[in-house]
Structures are given as structure tokens and as C-alpha cells.
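Late entry, written up from scratch paper. The run itself happened at the end of the previous shift, but nothing got recorded in the book at the time, so transcribing now.
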Amino acid sequence: MMPKDEAADDHRIDPEETIRIAGIVRESIVDGPGLRFAVFGQGCPHRCRGCHNESTHDFDGGYDCLQKTILAEIDKNPLLTGVTFTGGEPFCQPKEFYELGEEIKARGLDIVAYSGYTLEELQEMSEKNEWIKKLLALIDYLVDGPFILEERDLTLKFRGSKNQRFLCMKKSVLQEEMYMV
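Output as recorded:
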């Protein structure tokens, strides 16, 4: 766990804005392309059988972390190519992940988001939740769909089961069609 008292000098976000997380991984090569910083959101409604992040399911678990603390940790590593929002379900905290994502994009990093929802479900949800719509427009890649144990495949890049897709969101959003990477 990262220290809760460390703060970044960042004035674009509310200095007291928090996000509920299970934890972070400072350097990952399995959560998207390149060297990534992974933020594990806390709380997941999907509760997929065989999930490798089962401890992130409980919405009352984890801890509230200042967004500026996460940003300070990201800023420590100039070798990062991007940040991954995973979980738990990041789209259960779309405002918080969007605000964090804006700061990450301002640093020139790309964003991968993992979701147990499909892109189509998220698009439908975004009609009623502007933060989901904003988060979808902000991210660069989406790994969508629930983990299905019977379709588990360890040879898949950045995915756990065959039903999940690794989507390039910039092409998907601009061309109004899905672009699988």
C-alpha cells in the first residue's frame, strides 16, 4: 500500500478528492501495452467465478485514497507508458476514475480500463450517467466483458477469457464501430 500522507502539488483536482481502491501496482507489463501503473478500484457487482481479484469485490473493502497521492506515485516513474484502471469495476466509480484519468492524460500517458460490462452495456449505461460517457471518451483501450472461467485462456494478451475483447477506444468512438486490437 502507498502512504496516505504523501501529496502531489497538483491544483487541477480537489486536494481532498478520494477514490476507493483495493491497491496499486507501480509497474505492470500484464495490464496493457508497455510499462503501466495499475489502479485497482474497490467494489464489483459482477463477482465472476474464478476472478483473480476476488478481494476487490466488496464495495465496503479497500480504502479511500486521495487522488493526488496516486498521481504522486505515478509521477515517480518517468518510464511509465500508461495507467490501467482495473478492479473491482472502475465504471462503478466513473466520476472518480474520470477525474483521475484527466490528470493522467495531462501527463501524456495512455489509459486502459478493464470492465466486466461489455462496451455495448457501458454505452447504454452512459445514456443515464454522464460520467460513464466521459470516462469512455477519455480512455484509450477497453478490455470488456466478464471473466468466464470456462473460457479461460492463458495465451490471450491482456485478457483472461475468450469472450473478452481488447478494444481501441479512439477508433471505436470516432468510427462508431468496435476496433479490436
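The domain at 22-175 is CATH 3.20.20.70 (TIM Barrel).
(Scratch paper discarded after transcription.)
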